[in-house]
DNA sequence: GTTAAGATCTGCT
DNA sequence: GCAGATCTTAACG
């Protein structure tokens, strides 16, 4: 059976639609390997950023040095630095040159809990390890050195979750933290999950 | 060269 | 619930 670059079955996935990808990424594993060890979690919260009609998208005003990775081929990482302290991690979607991506906002920690805790700092509660884009990048040691990295291989990759229910309770809401396009419902969460950013 | 804003988090009230 | 930290990026002069 044929799979695309995220390992999704072709039947499950209609072309390169970014909104669809944001939904389909829920429930899948995000894995990160470093010399310190492996950390992994289940993606529970995503947001789609579109090239048209979406001023909140970094690519909406054309290609710049920062957002260049967004215009690359689907399945690579777009990582950027924000607010002087934090990184945000996206999966590039859509055909090459289009400039769309899915922001990974939160994961449910599964593997390497102690390492995540160490990176996040002291006595961090389990549901505070990776419940937000900045926290997630801290726990997974993601920075701009991974910008443009292909997410099909080490040291940062997406993986199927055979244990996930076939039908997830997915809810659509407005995106968090954007000042424009607040009316667009482009945030996807696993309903009722304890590890959401809010 | 200068400036304003930003896909956030933490700590304090 | 709210303000402050903190600094890169991009737009403008």
Description:
It is a single chain. Residues 9-15 have low confidence and may be disordered. The chain starts with 17 loop residues before the first helix and ends in an 8-residue tail after the last strand. With 198 residues, it is mainly beta. It contains three helices and nine strands, in the order αβββββααββββ. Strands 1, 2, 3, 4, 5, 6, 7, 8 and 9 form a nine-stranded antiparallel beta sheet that branches. A hairpin with a 2-residue loop joins β1 and β2. It has a single domain, classed as 3-methyladenine DNA Glycosylase, Chain A (Roll), CATH 3.10.300. Helices cover 11% and strands 30% of the residues. The radius of gyration is 16 Å and the shape is globular. The protein has helices at 18-24, 113-120, 133-139; strands spanning 29-34, 37-49, 77-82, 86-93, 100-111, 152-153, 156-159, 170-173, 187-190. It binds a DNA duplex (13 and 13 nucleotides) through β3, β4 and α3.
């Amino acid at each position: 059976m044929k799979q695309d670059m995220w390992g999704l079955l072709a039947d499950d996935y209609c072309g390169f639609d970014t909104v669809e990808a944001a939904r389909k990424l829920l429930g899948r594993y995000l894995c990160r390997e470093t010399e310190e060890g492996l950390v992994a979690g289940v993606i529970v919260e995503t947001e789609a950023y579109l090239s048209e009609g979406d001023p909140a998208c970094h690519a909406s005003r054309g290609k710049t040095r920062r957002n260049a990775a967004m215009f690359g081929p689907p399945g690579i990482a777009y990582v950027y630095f924000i607010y002087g302290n934090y990184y945000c991690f996206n999966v590039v979607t859509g055909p090459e040159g289009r400039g769309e991506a899915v922001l990974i906002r939160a994961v449910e920690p599964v593997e390497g809990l102690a390492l995540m805790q160490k990176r996040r700092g002291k006595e961090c509660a389990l549901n505070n390890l990776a419940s937000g884009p900045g926290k997630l990048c801290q726990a997974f040691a993601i920075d701009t050195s991974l910008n443009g990295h292909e997410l099909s291989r080490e040291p940062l990759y997406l993986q199927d979750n055979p244990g996930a229910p076939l039908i997830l309770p997915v809810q659509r809401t407005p995106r968090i933290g954007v000042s424009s396009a607040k009316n667009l419902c482009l945030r996807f969460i696993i309903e009722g999950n304890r590890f959401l950013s809010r």
